[in-house]
Design brief:
With 159 residues, the protein is mainly alpha-helical. Helix content is 75%, strand content 0%.
């Protein structure tokens, strides 16, 4: 079961959803200082340590504690395991949309939809991993979330 999870999670982190985005929106996103990974664009090895800290502590630890450690546990306790996992995933996906809106990024509904689907699917998988495979432990989610974000940031840093 863990192997199936790993393959599906790998797909979501490695599927190039940018191929579904129009080139103008993609160019806009890649040039925006409001997108965290862009701070590391093209700086290579100098990005490794700050990106490790940001991606593992800022994203992996903070988001996993809030969404899978706090919200998912509360929602699963009140609604049941499956509805709780689904609702925390929806909230996680929406949070990423809200962040784009708060940053003032004008990306259009299609980009928001893709962001919601991909981040929500990742959150669904992490919630399932935490609650169904690792008996409520958020450590595997912290490691996978941090590693996935770090790898994505390194792709930007070394591009």
């Amino acid at each position: 079961m863990l192997a199936v999870f790993a393959v599906v999670y790998w797909f979501f982190y490695n599927f190039d959803f940018t191929q579904l985005v129009d080139p103008a929106t993609l160019e806009y996103i890649e040039g925006s200082s409001a997108v965290a990974a862009n701070a590391y664009a093209g700086i290579g090895a100098a990005a490794v340590v700050p990106a490790l800290l940001e991606n593992f502590i800022g994203n992996g630890v903070a988001e996993e504690i809030l969404y899978r450690g706090f919200l998912c546990k509360r929602l699963c306790g009140k609604l049941g395991r499956v509805p709780g996992i689904i609702l925390q995933a929806v909230l996680f996906g929406l949070m990423h949309n809200v962040l784009y809106l708060l940053a003032g990024l004008d990306v259009g509904i299609w980009y928001h939809t893709l962001t919601f689907v991909f981040t929500g699917a990742g959150a669904l998988l992490l919630g399932w991993l935490n609650e169904k495979i690792f008996n409520g432990s958020i450590w595997p989610g912290i490691i996978l979330h941090g590693a996935g974000n770090f790898i994505s940031t390194m792709l930007v840093a070394f591009s």
